[in-house]
Predict the 3D structure of the following.
Amino acid sequence: MDTFDTLPLKPALLASIEALGYGAMTPIQAQSLPAMLEGRDVIAQAQTGSGKTAAFGLSLLQSLDPETIRLQALVLCPTRELADQVSKSIRRLAANIPNVKLLTLCGGMPLGPQLASLTHDPHIVVGTPGRVQEHLKRGSLHGGGIKVLVLDEADRMLDMGFREAIDDIAGRIAKHHQTLLFSATYPDDIKAISHRVQRNPLEIVVEAPVEAKPAIEQRFIEVEPARKIDALTQLLGGEGGEHALVFCNMRRDVDTVAQELDQRGFSALALHGDMEQRDRDEVLVRFANRSCNVLVATDVAARGLDIAALPLVVSYDLAHDPETHVHRIGRTGRAGQAGLAIALCTPREKPKADNIEQVLGMPLPWRPLKLSPPKGKTLSLAPMKTLVIDAGRQDKLRPGDILGALTGEAGLKADDIGKIDVFATRAYVAISRSLAMKALERLRAGKIKGRNFRVRALN
């Protein structure tokens, strides 16, 4: 059994590993960490949930010198949602190392606060390529001291058009640095960018062992285009529909399907790249905290979504390629949970299904669906409701402060309070739906951390 204490890690990192309850290393950690700790470049093909974030997080923290106030590690991610997730993971690993400054720099957010935060160099930056490139060009971010560059989910960054930005960033930072590249797929574009930015990298491919793969049941259902929304409605009214992710290929279809589900009584929200960043944040928060039952999204928008207990994923449109199909079904059945992945297939989409079957190397599990006559509107409300507090980390507001206000003056029980998310300038808290208005009134009448903040409910 490969354990972390066999590696030459700082005592502070071993203490964090123990506190986080990490046991044996995952395959990607066992295969990549020894080489990364020696300073070698690595290119690894590994899926989401494989433990890759902890692997590169431990490696870059091992080489970090907190007493040297300069940027030493840069992590590039395709979306803000993933960047936030990676930042949280690295912060947890760095919990026992004093004075580590980490900044998350992503597009779609105001530039002013980021510039203010960069008055003093951070040790680590996690961000999206466009915004990091902008800061490097401005001179607000200094790359001359970078020792480690991480390209996380590099295939998605290339899919999103960040190739030139990545090349430009690599050319603006310290010439001699370690480059760690992680990708779920290994197309020629990834090999090309590795050739440009890496030196003799160790190549690692990790496949999850069959016995370790979560129990995901797949179903393919053939349906006529005119009855697609009826089929989706019927499926969401059954197994797993109380918390489901629905994929569409086109942004306009995401809006159409979400609106139709809303009209039929479902608590449904849309998520795609045309939305403002704050709106995207709020949608993800509400889906994760169970204030929304159904999320309708494009593949790119849902990339950073990581919810352990997601029982149902539906492909409203069949994925354009088998790799995307595999990624979609991997959204369910996480953390050992059982999951159901259903793909709706119109006769016109049959060639896509044949392609998926060929790549998977096994017959697709086609299942009949007997459509019931359309019903009237039936309410399927989410169990929680989200309150927004117009204050956040900049106001020194912590989740504990919000929890204290709700269980104190507001008189709620801890069991009535769900997930609390605190951002830079705002905070979100999930409340049991039946008590949400009571909580809202109490918070408006009382104080949080001795101060009055504007509080409102998200509809």
Remarks:
- The longest helix spans residues 80-93.
- The chain has a mean pLDDT of 89.
- Residues 72 and 146 are 4 Å apart (CA to CA).
